[in-house]
What does this fold into?
Amino acid sequence: MNTREELKNKKRIVVKIGSSSITHPETGAINLTKLEILVRELCDLKNMGKDVILVSSGAIAVGRQAAGLRRRPENLAEKQACAAIGQAQLMMIYQKLFSEYGHQAAQILMTKNTMINNLNRMNASNTFEELLQMGAIPIVNENDTVSTYEIEFGDNDTLSAIVAALIHADLLILLSDIDGLYTDDPHKNPDAVFIDYVDHLDDQLLKMGKGSSSDVGTGGMSTKLSAARIATASGADMIIANGEDFHILHKLIQGNNYGTLFQGQHDKDFYLIDILDKDS
Ligand code: GLU
It folds into this structure.
């Protein structure tokens, strides 16, 4: 069985979607058609008997729209206020859509600080386990309204890798507005070559990360590569793929060759807490 085929056997899957994948680029408003497809795909993974965890960005983007802000929020308080409005709206829509397919969505908001604290981390891990036992679908985001440096430096690519490591997921799928990893920025360099499989993340590959050009969200290729480092060291495979069409989810799980697959390589010296300490 090749590596792609093995994706069929994954049992615990974390899917991360960026703000730009769930909003209309013209207006910044939520893209309900895409969200419906996403939820249907996730419910079907659930129906296959898999544990499904969604890490969803979009609180700030949705809140900015709801608050009638035409520009990107600038200062921290403005971002946090937008997140407070947007996170509630986002969850309302997710709960409605998931319940249409008979599934229960649950909200988990996390900060780096709560991950660093041993007791809080253990509580978070227990809550995930309990929710998955109950058959619910945890929907995770940063607790943007109370966190500060998360908004300034953090991103949901890293958060999703930390979640994957915390709950011992065997697959992390990052869906964004890029097809996967190229040898260079394909928008600037026509000779950039697509890389569909990475069995070992070395320093040369890590250097290929480029900044984000998107108007919403915070993650670029470099944050995706550091997410890959965390996820693969924890033992999970990771895929970066284009979230333009969320039907890609079942195609990936069927073993089709989309995006870039990073092979999980459990590192015996990997301790989640070391990564958190280093970044904070
Ligand atoms: N937590 C932010 C939000 O939900 C997004 C962070 C990110 O996209 O990396 O708006």
Observations:
- Residues 18-19, 57-61, 83, 141-142, 144, 155-156, 217-219 surround glutamic acid (CB under 6 Å).
- The longest strand covers residues 12-17.
- The two ends are 40 Å apart (CA to CA).
